[in-house]
């Protein structure tokens, strides 16, 4: 569903392949985190994915129904003690692939922004 949503955005807004790839990975990570960590894999809880476009900025708003989290104190996935751990890279990837990442509502909302050149 996420891939189809982003594919539709690529077509509608004529996104170039580089931005498309970054969006696909970052937004997929955000939605996966919302499902797994935010909603604790509870199938009765929803994740909202909203796209907005403002001239040269495309923004993806991902919101879960969880408790939120302390997004200001996350372990560094590049630290030697974390390199072999299987998880913990999602937010790191989002921050490096997006032009802006903003957390709101105690971590229940993440907004990923990408500058586009049309």
Please describe what this structure looks like.
A four-stranded antiparallel β-sheet has the order 1-2-4-3, with helices on one face. With 118 residues, the protein is of the alpha+beta class. It is built from three helices and four strands; from the N terminus they run ααββαββ. The chain is globular and about 40 Å long.
Short recap of the structure:
This protein has 118 residues and is an alpha+beta fold. The protein has helices spanning 2-13, 17-38, 90-97; strands spanning 48-54, 57-63, 100-104, 109-115.
Q: Which stretches of 5+ consecutive residues score pLDDT under 50?
A: none
Shape, principal axes of CA atoms:
globular
Could you give the count of β-strands? 4
- Terminal-residue CA separation: 25 Å
Just name the CATH architecture.
2-Layer Sandwich
What's the CATH superfamily, by name? Answer: Histidine kinase-like ATPase, C-terminal domain
């Amino acid at each position: 569903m996420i891939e189809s949503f982003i594919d539709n955005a690529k077509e509608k807004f004529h996104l170039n392949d580089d931005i498309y790839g970054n969006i696909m990975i970052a937004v997929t990570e955000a939605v996966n985190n919302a499902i797994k960590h935010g909603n604790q894999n509870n199938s009765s809880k929803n994740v909202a994915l909203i796209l907005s476009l403002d001239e040269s900025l495309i923004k993806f708003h991902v919101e879960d129904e969880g408790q939120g989290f302390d997004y200001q104190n996350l372990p560094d996935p590049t630290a030697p003690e974390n390199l072999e751990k299987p998880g913990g890279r999602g937010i790191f990837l989002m921050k490096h692939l997006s032009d802006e990442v903003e957390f709101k509502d105690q971590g229940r909302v993440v907004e990923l922004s990408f500058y586009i050149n049309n």
